[in-house]
Amino acid sequence: MLEAIRRFRSHLKISGVSGISRRYFVMNFFDGAMTMLGVIVGAHTTGASDPRIVIGAGLGATVAMGMSGFSGAYLTERAERMRRLKGLKKAMLSDMRSSVHAKAAHAASLWAAFVDGISPALAAAIPMTPYALSLLHVISPEQALLASVALIMTTLFGLGAFLGRISKENVLISGLRMIIVGAATAFIVLVLRAIPA
User: Which phi and psi (to 5°) does residue 94 adopt?
Assistant: First the structure.
């Protein structure tokens, strides 16, 4: 088992997938947080504040994002890696199917798909926690709403700060940018709800 993990890590290093997977994680974590913000604010503005409804909608969105992220990233990354491998095969004039490059391409596709699939699910699980507490009657649905929105905004700030650190920009400003995007999203959902049908 340890040897298989070591080989997998070695293949990931050869493939150079770490930068790509980091981008996948941040983008899809952001998507998961923003989707849950839309689900939560939308549910409350329509009067559907029952924790079971919010959790059900959140789980549905989470599964859909996870499956879409995993399959979409795997197929996209695999196609790109196979294209490069075929180019290498043409240049080397040899069959590359059992080569370390082919194994690295497969490992990279699986890793990118895993990261792409798990990141929105993790992001969605965070704001659903207060609704689980509300379902257990620990807090009220209104308190769950406030706690969930606060958790989402904190998550967005953390993502922004992380991106600011990577780009060597001001971490605070980068985090605040993400919060502004979240606040704007919530505002748009509220405005759309206020428009008469």
Answer: -150, 160
According to DSSP, residue 16 is labeled T
CA distance 103 to 15: 9
Nearest to 28 by CA among 60, 73, 59: 73
pTM score over 0.85? no
Q: What is the pLDDT of residues 129-163, one digit of tens each?
A: 999 999 999 999 889 999 999 999 999 999 999 98
pLDDT digits (tens, 9 = 90+) for 89-106: 665 655 556 666 567 777
Tokens of 102: 């082919």
Q: Where are the alpha helices (DSSP H) in 46-136?
A: 51-92, 100-135
CA distance 174 to 30: 14
**Is the predicted pLDDT of residue 112 greater than 60, yes or no?**
yes
Residue type (1 letter), 69: G
Q: 83 CB contacts (<8 Å, ≥6 apart)?
A: none
Q: What is the largest CA-CA distance in the chain?
A: 67
The values of phi and psi at residue 50, to 5°, are -60, 125
